[in-house]
Amino acid sequence: MTSERAWVRPGYGPGGPGWHHGLMNIMLFHSTYGLRPAVREAADRLRAAGHEVWTPDLFEGRTFDTVEEGMEFKEAIGKEELLKRAVLAAAPYSDRGLVYAGFSLGASVAQTLALGDDKARGLLLLHGTSDIAPNAHVDELPVQLHVAEPDPFETDDWLSAWYLQMGRAGADVEVYRYAGAGHLYTDPGLPDYDAEAAEATWRVALGFLDTLD
């Protein structure tokens, strides 16, 4: 049985300060597998809830069947080039105040962009996080992370340190963990898939988006 467990910093949530139902502009980044059908399906789910969603293809059409192949391709591109592609994809829409979101690798990209964008309205992380620059600072940026428990790519020690660092940077963070799920448990086309955890994640994530203003 999959269960969810949250670490929640107080200050927002349904019925709390700033709560409303509104349209968000969401930049959704794919994982190291590339722009798979599951990413497009996730975007459609968000659009059905009334949001505007873009799904940049940072791999320029390449998709992969294994995480190892995807990682090899990512390393060949290089971190700097990958972030450049992400910034260029987001730039035309950043004045609208974006919610940055992503899956695994895409979550790390989303986090980097959100922490550098003073107009960002939120950060939705699915299956991944990233390093935090020592001088990073945001003004109570709402952040929600969904991650398996355990997750070989997001260890308990790492997540504890990440959570504290995000708080020190000024982010308002929620972390939801899903016992027994695989790393990329929201993708129906992967062995990691866990239907119960995926539906719980989307239920909570859509609620999170409703809190943003």
From TrEMBL:
<dbReference type="InterPro" id="IPR002925">
    <property type="entry name" value="Dienelactn_hydro"/>
</dbReference>
<dbReference type="GO" id="GO:0016787">
    <property type="term" value="F:hydrolase activity"/>
</dbReference>
<dbReference type="InterPro" id="IPR051049">
    <property type="entry name" value="Dienelactone_hydrolase-like"/>
</dbReference>
<feature type="domain" description="Dienelactone hydrolase">
    <location>
        <begin position="25"/>
        <end position="211"/>
    </location>
</feature>
<protein>
    <submittedName>
        <fullName>Dienelactone hydrolase family protein</fullName>
    </submittedName>
</protein>
<dbReference type="InterPro" id="IPR029058">
    <property type="entry name" value="AB_hydrolase_fold"/>
</dbReference>
<keyword id="KW-0378">Hydrolase</keyword>
<dbReference type="Pfam" id="PF01738">
    <property type="entry name" value="DLH"/>
</dbReference>
